[in-house]
Design goal:
The chain is α+β, with helices and mostly antiparallel strands. Helices cover 47% and strands 13% of the residues. Strand 3 and strand 4 form a beta hairpin. The longest helix has 54 residues. The chain is globular, with a radius of gyration of 28 Å. Bound molecules: adenosine-5'-diphosphate and magnesium ion. The site of magnesium ion has 3 residues, from loops.
């Protein structure tokens, strides 16, 4: 890093990265630690003591007095349990941090969801250092804490977190890729999955937020009539960023840069008060941890600006919700395998990877869908602005044509343009912007990577990325199996392959495309016809979380995760249980919150309005004035009807909650909302107890 970059950004200042390693560790130890990090190897125990010593000094130089193993429990957020460096030795206070403290922790942490993997009286939970994600400093107003990214598992080794399966899936894909690349004659190299996670979010003034129990307790508004102006004019998207928001963004980025997170892009999103932050992509595990820190930082910095950052997928009805586009690719030996490349040999690898992804997504659309399921995302998937709940792939017209010519070289349709022979032809240049036009697809090829757009804004990237790695590992393996069977692969260096090799590969890819091209859809995913067409093609469509999560209970899916060492059957079952329970709890909290707001805030306001109207009507009558009485009477009737409906809907909702019926709870909440939102238009502004959409969505 140049001095100029350093002083402008303070990039990586709070990360125990290259520079800190060089400064705080001996040359020898630094070298061993770097090797561990780069190759993802286990740490040499003989250096743990010195590394811990160095990290402590580095952290204390930055004001840290405490350390914590930082991990990703199944709650979907991050967890930390702090210990101080302070210890008493012979009655004397000293600062200490041992190699053991660095490598393993025993936080117990028995109250996290485990889906039956551990009960509180059973084995402890352990955290184990993940050296591939560097330690960092978390600052607060009067101190700092050293955070050590870790994996969290039970005594039995079963995973209790979101990081462990991700690391395992990366290993699985690495193994499959090494096998495939060997068949292509490539020298063995380091493979790396990459992730760029675009983060959408809303901001709301904290004063409004405080007055909205629904936002406080559930993260979304359960009531609220639409604002006259919403996003119709499309004037917010990419508009001038308001000063208050820009200064918030600046502070966020400064914090992120210090943590070594390459925040790159910021802009207004489509809905009013909606924004986006996109980092430059990094290796997957690090990028996934970094996204957790991005969400943390957005929330924390918002507080300092008198704002609240809403990461819920659908904070407001009637305007766009928020997603988290997961841009994913794989590199081998530093070269992106999803880059079409410039010669026939690179093209062959690219087409193989492209077909492998298409095959994987078609075979396991159910698992991808399950990986983005959740109570919040249910309001977004399939809603107008979001990718539909049907998982399909967009590749763009040019690439679609390439695939067709690859599949049917003899078809007369393509005679004019010529066939596409692997190993002989180069691909036509595929301009990036030609592949990036379709925003309606849940899974789009965007020039040199895939963009999975179905994940919701609050999701931890590791879930969807674990699935993607695993299913691609499987299809890469299957293609490698076929190639191996032909006995012509793995015999030549890149550029020196025989025609027999290329013909064999072409046949394998043709068979794969024939079987799986149904998942490719280049049309408009928002059109009403698409779900019908998708059904004809046999593509699954799971409209809600419980139906989507059923994929985790399927035998063949458990077998897949077991085969690739990503999750045991028990681990998968535990996750199914945890996610379902989380969904049910969230719906219950929302239902209860809606009921409470309706009966404690809305009902009294509506009654007061009714009373005032009745008194006005009575007063007019008592002084014998006729004008106005018919209007007052009508208003009274309408308010009365609203009050009646309110009572009825509250009763129904209460009943659904009592029966723990999630579907009925959601339906009753919707009916109640319709009543409340129409009362919002009848009760005077001064009396209405909740800040309105028009206030909250336009904070400037
Ligand atoms: P947009 O989607 O807004 O047009 P881009 O497509 O340029 O923007 O980039 C979106 C995200 O994709 C960024 O985070 C970027 O770093 C990431 N990205 C670019 N190349 C790759 C790659 N090879 N692997 C993973 N992510 C990538
Ligand atoms: Mg994008």
């Amino acid at each position: 890093m140049t001095e100029e970059t350093k002083s402008a950004t303070h990039f990586g200042e709070d990360v125990f990265g290259d520079e800190a390693i060089r400064t705080y560790l001996s040359k020898d130890t630094a070298k061993k630690l770097q090797a561990t990090i780069q190759e993802g190897k286990p740490l040499d125990p003989s250096i743990a003591g010195e590394v811990a010593h160095g990290i402590r000094h580095w952290a204390m130089d930055r004001g840290a007095t405490h350390y914590t193993h930082w991990f990703l429990p199944m709650t979907g957020s991050t967890a930390e349990k702090h210990d101080s460096f302070l210890e008493l030795k012979d009655g004397e206070p000293i600062m200490q941090f041992s190699g053991k403290n660095l490598i393993v922790g025993e936080p117990d942490a028995s109250s996290f969801p485990s889906g039956g993997i551990r009960s509180t009286f059973e084995a402890r939970g352990y955290t184990a250092w993940d050296p591939t994600s560097p330690a960092f400093i978390k600052r607060h107003s009067n101190g700092a804490t050293l955070c050590i990214p870790t994996a969290f598992c039970a005594y039995t080794g079963e995973s209790l977190d979101k990081k462990t399966p991700l690391l395992r899936s990366m290993q699985a894909l690495d193994k499959s890729l090494k096998r495939l690349m060997k068949l292509f004659g490539r020298p063995e190299a380091h493979s790396a999955c990459t992730l760029g996670a675009e983060q959408e979010y809303f901001l709301v003034d904290k004063e409004y937020w405080k007055k909205r129990p629904d936002l406080v307790l559930t993260g979304r508004t359960l009531f609220g009539a639409p604002s006259a102006k919403g996003q119709q004019l499309e004037d917010h998207y990419f508009g001038t960023i308001p000063d208050r928001v820009l200064s918030f963004m600046n502070d966020v980025e400064r914090e992120l840069w210090k943590l070594g997170i390459p925040a790159k892009t910021r802009h207004n999103e489509v809905a009013p008060a909606q924004f986006e932050l996109a980092p430059q992509f990094e290796e997957l595990n690090l990028a996934s941890d970094h996204n957790m820190l991005v969400m943390d930082t957005l929330r924390n910095v918002a507080e300092k600006h008198g704002l609240k950052c809403l990461l819920h997928e659908k904070p407001y009805a009637g305007v766009n919700g928020s997603g988290k586009h997961n841009n994913w690719s794989v590199a081998y030996g530093g070269k992106n395998l999803l880059d079409p490349g410039s010669n026939p040999d690179e093209n062959a690898v690219f087409l193989t990877m492209l077909c492998a992804v298409i095959e994987a997504v078609d075979k396991h659309a159910d698992l991808l869908r399950a990986s983005v399921a959740g109570a919040g995302n249910d309001h977004r998937l399939g809603a107008n602005e979001a990718p539909p709940a049907v998982i399909s792939i967009y590749v763009g017209d040019q690439l679609a044509e390439v695939l067709e010519r690859l599949e049917n070289p003899k078809s007369a349709k393509h005679e004019a343009k010529g066939t596409l022979k692997i190993g002989v032809d180069t691909l036509p240049a595929i301009p990036k912007d030609a592949t990036d036009r379709n925003r309606t697809s849940p899974f789009a090829f965007t020039g040199n990577k895939f963009e999975f757009r179905a994940p919701g804004s609050s999701v931890c990237c590791s879930g969807p990325m674990t699935v993607l790695n695993t299913i691609v590992a499987e299809s890469v393996d299957r293609i490698a199996d076929e190639l191996e069977k032909t006995k012509v692969a793995g015999k030549a260096k890149p550029g020196e392959h025989t025609a027999a090799f290329h013909n064999a590969l072409q046949k394998i890819l043709q068979t794969s495309l024939k079987a799986h091209k149904r998942v490719v859809f280049n049309g408009n995913g928002y059109e009403a016809d698409w779900p019908k067409e998708a059904a004809k093609r046999g593509l699954p469509n799971f409209p809600d979380t419980p139906s989507a999560l059923a994929a985790l209970a399927k035998k063949e899916n458990a077998a897949l995760f077991e085969k690739y060492g990503v999750m045991t059957k028990r681990e998968l079952e535990s996750r199914h249980e945890i996610f379902l329970e989380e969904y049910e709890k969230k719906v219950r909290i929302e239902g209860t919150c809606a009921r409470d707001i309706a009966s404690e805030l809305i009902l009294p306001a509506a009654k007061a309005e009714y009373l005032e109207t009745a008194q006005a009507y009575e007063a007019a009558n008592s002084v014998g004035v006729a004008s106005g009485t018919s209007a007052l009477r009508e208003e009274l009737v309408e308010l009365g009807a609203g009050l009646d409906a309110l009572r009825t809907e509250i009763g129904k909702l209460d009943d659904a909650i009592m029966r723990s019926d999630s579907a009925a709870t959601l339906a009753s909440m919707q009916a109640l909302r319709t009543t409340v939102d129409s009362l919002e238009k009848r009760v005077s502004e001064a009396r209405w107890p909740l800040p309105k959409y028009r206030d909250m969505l336009f904070l400037y």
